[in-house]
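Problem: given the chain below (179 residues), write out its structure.
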Amino acid sequence: MSITYTTVTSEEELQQILTLQQNNLPISISKSEKEIEGFLTVQHDLEILKKMNTLQPHVIAKDSNKVVGYALCMLKDFKEDIEILKPMFTQIEAHLDAHISYFVMGQICIDKAYRKQGIFRGLYQTIKKESQQNYSLLITEVASNNLRSLQAHYAIGFKTLITHKSDGVEWHLIHWNWE
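Solution.
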């Protein structure tokens, strides 16, 4: 197995992202798997993935031609486009200096068969390499009950900016400072 990291260049890759996403939503996994492996919150569609990718390309991990992991990159231009993420952007704007350049990790996911092989770290290192010239921060939000995801993010250098509640869910708004 030889994993390569790159940015999305085709609709086929976007379709593979959507399939991987579908397989990791809470409706597709058991309660115990959700607790142990983590889970995804947002379900995207092809149109929004294309728009997001045009402004800030998504990063993918591939094994041959198969997308085995992805990191969706989202600029603040999309703050009104995904309902469940609107409170996150409100919190960012309330707690971050308006002059700080940042983008949002819209979602990160690794295929179950490829977990615990460093792909999570590889995706984030690729994002940093591709983006640190243009942005000083990467921001994302993780549900407090998604312990696996929180621990993985902290392990690579993310820090909590704030915690807040939205629709009865407690969230950690976390950032990775590249400066």
